[in-house]
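Figure S7 source data.
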Amino acid sequence: IWKNNRGLNFRKLNSEWICQSSLFSCLFVHICTCVFLVILISLCIRLAAVGFLTVSSTVTMSAPFFLGKVIDTIYSTGTDIETMTASLTSLCIMLTGVFLCGGAANAARVYLMEVSGQQIIRNLRGSIFMSILRQEVAFFDKNRTGELINRLSADSAIVGRSITDNLSDGLRAVAQAVAGVSMMFYVSPSLASFVLLIVPPMAALAVIYGRYLRSISKRTQDALAQATQLAEERISNLRTVRAFGKELSEVNAYKQKADFVLSLAKKEAKMRAGFFGVTGLSGNLMILSVLYKGGLLMANHHMTVGELSSFLMYTFWVGISIAGLSSFYSELMKGFGAGARLWELLERKPEFPLDEGHVLPPEQLKGQLEFCNVSFAYPTRKEAHIFQNLNLLVPAGTIMAVVGPSGSGKSSLVSLLLRLYDPDSGLITIDGHDIRDLNPYWLRAHIGTVSQEPVLFSCSIRDNIAYGATDPDAVTTEDIYRAAKVANAFDFVQRFPKGFDTVVGEKGVLLSGRTLWWKSRFYSQISNPKILLLDEATSALDSENESLVQEALERLMEGRTVVIIAHRLSTIKNADTVAVLDQRQIAECGNPTELLSNREGQFRKLMEKQSHEKGKGAEFILEPYPQKE
Ligand SMILES: Nc1ncnc2c1ncn2[C@@H]1O[C@H](COP(=O)(O)OP(=O)(O)OP(=O)(O)O)[C@@H](O)[C@H]1O
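Tokens for the predicted adenosine-5'-triphosphate complex:
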């Protein structure tokens, strides 16, 4: 306002504007404060965890030094029982206090790391889920559901664990190894240099092992994703599996996939066993060499018994830390292996961004649809062209029926209009605007679809209906009842004991099959779209339901641009125009009665074929074909 209205008289600003702007600034400040606090708290949690880690590691690593002092006290005080008791008591009381602090710090560290680890996994899963849902439809043609679910659940858990709990344990092992080695040098530099000769060969072994583990972990997660993919597909299509009696062969197929996972796990186990065997052996060799060389140093009075004991304990601790480090390294490499695909998924930019850089058309939508020289092939089957230079115009407010043989591309037209795919060349426009320039959310909100395979989510019928609205929370019960009445389904749903609160099962199977799927999907046209795409809308209905739905459809089609994709005469009887799809183009387009009167025409032949299939003669088509008034 300051920039654009320099001549603005501030006295003229009304109090409502001032109230609103101060409300917005308050809200803005509140949001900023909340975000800042959340960041501060999570930072504090991590800092506190690191603090507790430092305290617990310092206490742990100082223990051998003080225990060595206790031993030396025992030796130096000789046989004077009273002095020894006094010295030992004070030393032990002091050390018990220190150890208590160390124990408490360790418990706090484990708790904090566990909590922040779970937070990281939650955030990771949220980001992956968002990244999956943002991808274009063609991505889901190439990547199967089961595989993606495996990435979301199993892979993210492995990656999360490897960078949280594991990282905390790894940091602790590093801190303790560094402190232990330093103390070993402090207690006896010559003994330390001798013992640590074993480290370089162990490090080389660890690098080789890490590389192997990383690649095998990637292969294992891929194999697991394939097994999950098979299971997901078969479980979600259980009725087909049961109908063909394929349970046993499917179990065998799954077992084969699981066997492959097992064989990879066995390879990993062999490698792990070898590595941990070698690290265990080297730990014992270190202890042995300490005793050997340390014994000699003691004999030459270069070391006291307390120093040797401290050194021995440090060697134990360093050994344990190295074992911890190798398991940290293994888990980290496993995490990297499992994470490779996750990063790909997180990094992947969808081919059509959901909302960036798009505009809303300035004027009110009328609903004219046009395909201009459209050529298209599915990204997974680039060689099979679905359309080549296809042209089609659907004037605003008219009803166009698209017919054609199976596989001619009728449903593909709908997919292109919804911008689930982009054409390879040519233009698709709505009111003259290229749909690629329009905001996809806006586009889909103004196009209502009733698809061949409508799906219900496993929640109440009420929630399923509200799902179609732009803001489901704003949908009132009256809106839901109205949508159901328009769809001729109000009485039908009210007959359920819980009415609109009836929870439907997976894919709506708790209700009476496909009839309800279709109807319920239809309720979701609650957003009152200007353009309706009906894909095989009534193909799954019995005659009673078909007439109910037909009646509802007729009511709904009023004043909208409608594209009906159907084979049936009954479903296209209201059409103003019929377009026949064949050979990747529109073969015929015109008034249905005129098209039917052409005996050599494609539409006539299609309809004749259908009426013969129904056991009726060709006359059937011409005689009762309803004339639109
Ligand atoms: N996602 C996809 N990926 C690759 N090919 C596809 C995809 N969807 C459909 N097809 C293929 O595109 C062609 C046209 O399919 P489409 O479903 O549009 O035809 P249709 O005329 O609606 O068929 P029907 O009447 O049998 O439903 C078919 O050969 C089909 O196998």
